[in-house]
Amino acid sequence: MEKFEKITGIAAPMPLVNIDTDMIIPKQFLKTIKRSGLGANLFDEMRFDRQGNEIADFVLNQPQYRKAEILVAGDNFGCGSSREHAPWAIKDFGIRCVIAPSFADIFYNNCFKNGILPIALPQEQVDVLMKDAEKGANARIEIDLEHQQITTSDGEVFGFEVDAFKKHCLMEGLDDIGLTMEKAASIDTFEAAANAARPWV
Amino acid sequence: MSPKTLYDKIWDAHLAHEAEDGTCLLYIDRHLVHEVTSPQAFEGLRMAGRKVRAPEKTIAVPDHNVPTTPGREDPKNMTEDSAIQVAALDKNAKDFGIHYYPVSDVRQGIVHIVGPEQGWTLPGMTVVCGDSHTATHGAFGALAHGIGTSEVEHVLATQTLIQKKSKNMKVEITGQLRPGVTAKDITLSVIGKTGTAGGTGYVIEYCGEAIRALSMEGRMTVCNMAIEGGARAGLIAPDETTFEYVKGRPHAPKGAQWETALAWWKTLYSDDDAHWDEVITIAGEDIAPVVTWGTSPEDVLPITANVPAADDFEGGKIGAAQRSLDYMGLTPGTPLSEIEIDTVFIGSCTNGRIEDLRAAAEILKGKKIKVKRAMVVPGSGLVRAQAEEEGLADIFKEAGFEWRLAGCSMCLAMNPDQLAEGERCASTSNRNFEGRQGYKGRTHLVSPGMAAAAAITGKLTDVREMM
C-alpha cells in the first residue's frame, strides 16, 4: 500500500450531505475483477452525461480542480454500500484525503486499506476548509498525518483525530493481513477453545 | 460480573486478541461471499500464496448481477462482464474449497436470504460479508456487518477482522403495531427519526414488545436496514421465535449439540442494568405505513403526509432536500398518495422472503395492476418454490406481475432489471439513492403490502384502504 505522510494539494469542494457510494461509483462499474482503473468513472453520473460528455459545472470537471488531491464534503460521506470500489475510484483519480463532518463506518475503514486518509472535523472547521477549497487551484491545503494537522492556504491550523493503529499502518503502508498473521498463535489458541465451547459453529 | 449488553456478550465471546492500544482481532464464525466484492480478495490470496483459513465457515453464492430470467445457467445469457464475475466465483469456490450454491442450484438466492434459510446463521455468531446488508443476520442475535473487499481478503486469510468496539444503542419499539403497519415501516420510521448518520459508531439492539411480536422474517427486515441508519450492525436478542425458526435447518446443530447450543443461546440477552450510550423509544401505535419521498432513506413520511419543501429542513439538509425534490420530480405540498407510479418491484434482501410475498399477494388477490410494469423477484429459489406451491405465484401472474428467478435484481440494478430514465418505482428494497435502480430512476421505498397497493391503483397508496 502507498504510504501517506504529508500532502500539500488542491482541495475540491463538494458541499453536499449524504454523498453515497452509488454516487461515488455507480454499480455498472462494479463488474470488474480488478482494483485499478476506476478513477475514470469516479462520480460518473454527476460528472458525465449519458453520451459520456463532461458536465461542465461538476467540480472535478472544472480546470482548477482536475488535479485535486483532497476532497472537502458534507456530512455522512460514503454512506450506503460496502463496495471498496468507492475508495479504489477515489484513489485512482488521485485523491488521497477526504475531509467531512462525518463518514459512514464501512467507507471510513475501507479508506485506510487503500492509502486514503479520511478526516472527520467539526462542521465549523469543515466550513472554513470548504471556503478555502472554493478559492481554487491557488489555495493549497496541507495535510500532515504525522502531526495530525491541517494547514489552510491562509495558514490557519486545525488538529484532527485518527486511530493510532490506523495511522501507523497508513504512514508505513503496512499490509493488515501480514500484521494479523503475526498473531497466528493467538488465533489458533482462540479457535481451538471456541471450537470446544461451540462445536456447532 | 458487570452487566453486559447482548453486543458486549457476543464481542467478548469472539475476542481472539487485544493489543495494548485497544485494537482487537474478532474471530469470525461465518463468512458469506458473493461475486461482486470478492474477486479481488481471492486474487490477493493467490498473489500472496495464501489459503482460506476456514473454508468450512465460508459460504458463497452469486446474487448481485445474475439475470432473473430463465436460461441464466448459460453464461451466454449474461452480459460478458457479469459472466466473468460469476465464472470467477465458480472457480474461486472450487479452488479454495468453500461451500457454494451456483445459479443452477434451487437453493441459490440473495446471500442474506440463503444464509438464514440454510441454517448457516445462528444466534451468538459473528457473521460478515462484503455487503452492507449483512446487518440482516442480526435478527438472530448474531453480530453481523458488512465489510470491504480488503477485509474480505483479511477474513479469508485469517478468519478474523481488525475491529474497535462500537457503542451500544437501544431502540425500543413499545406496544403493538396497528393493522397495515409492518417491520418495514418500523425500520424506515427509526431511520426517519435518527437520520442516516444517527447510528454511526453504534451497534443497535432493537427491543420492545412490538419487536418481540415480529416473526423472524420481520426481524430480518428490521435489522437489514440498520446500515441505512449508519449503524455498524443491528441486533435482536434470540428467543423462542428464533429457536423455532432455526431448528431443523440443514446447518443448524442437531441432537445433543442442539441442547448445548440452546443453553448458550438462552444467555444471549442484554442484562437489565446494562449501560446504553444512547436510547431511542418509539411507540408502536405511532408508526404508520410510510414511504420515502427523496433520495436518502431518512426521507421518510407517513403515506398520509404531503411532499415537504426544502425549507422545512435545516443546515446542509436544505440543499440536499432541494436536490432530492428536483431529482424525484416532486412539487412540495403534493399529497404523497397522488404520486403516480410506473413500476413496482417486490423483492430484495429486505423484503424478498415468503411472508413478504404472502403480504403482497393478499392485497393483489383477484386484482389487476395499473402500472406499466411490475415484478416479483423471490429472495431464493426455495422461496420461489414455496410461493408456487402456495399459489402465490398464480396470484402475482394473474394480476400482471412478472414472476422472476431469485437474485438482487432491481434493488441495485446490476443485472438487466433496471428503471428507465425518469421512471418512478414503488420498491420494497432498501435504498432510494440517485441512480440506484437505474440511471435517473426514481425510487420510493415501501413495504410489500404498500407496493402491491401501488401496483393496483397506479399511485402511492395507503394499504389500509385495501384491507
Secondary structure layout plus pairing:
The complex is a heterodimer of chains A (201) and B (467).
Chain A: E1 6-14, H1 21-24, H2 44-47, E2 70-73, H3 85-93, E3 97-100, H4 105-112, E4 117-120, H5 123-133, E5 140-144, E6 149-151, E7 157-159, H6 164-172, H7 176-181, H8 184-197
Parallel strand pairs in A: 1-2, 2-3, 3-4
Antiparallel strand pairs in A: 1-5, 5-6, 6-7
Chain B: H1 6-13, E1 15-18, E2 24-27, E3 30-33, H2 39-48, E4 58-60, H3 80-96, E5 99-100, H4 111-117, E6 126-129, E7 143-146, H5 149-158, E8 160-163, E9 167-174, H6 183-194, E10 202-207, H7 209-212, H8 216-224, E11 233-235, H9 240-246, H10 255-265, E12 278-283, E13 290-292, E14 300-302, H11 316-328, E15 343-347, H12 348-351, H13 354-364, E16 373-377, H14 381-389, H15 392-399, E17 402-403, E18 424-427, E19 442-445, H16 448-457
Parallel strand pairs in B: 3-4, 3-6, 4-5, 6-7, 9-10, 9-12, 10-11, 15-16, 15-18, 16-17, 18-19
Antiparallel strand pairs in B: 1-2, 2-8, 13-14
Helix pairs in contact in B: 2-5, 6-8, 13-15, 13-16
Explain this structure to me?
The complex is a heterodimer of chains A (201) and B (467). With 201 residues, chain A is α/β, with parallel strands linked by helices. Helix content of chain A is 32%, strand content 16%. Chain A has one domain: Aconitase, domain 4. Chain A has eight helices and seven strands. Chain A has a seven-stranded mixed β-sheet. In chain A, helix 3 links the parallel strand 2 and strand 3. Chain A is globular and about 60 Å long. The mean pLDDT of chain A is 96. With 467 residues, chain B is α/β, with parallel strands linked by helices. Chain B is 32% helix and 17% strand. Chain B is built from 16 helices and 19 strands. In chain B, the strands form five sheets. A five-stranded parallel β-sheet of chain B has the order 5-4-3-6-7, sandwiched between helices. Chain B has a five-stranded parallel β-sheet with strand order 17-16-15-18-19. Chain B has a four-stranded parallel β-sheet with strand order 11-10-9-12. In chain B, helix 2 links the parallel strand 3 and strand 4. In chain B, helix 2 packs across helix 5 and helix 6 runs parallel beside helix 8. The model of chain B has no long low-confidence stretch (mean pLDDT 97). Chains A and B meet through helix 4, helix 7 and helix 8 of A and strand 1, helix 2, helix 3, helix 5 and helix 10 of B.
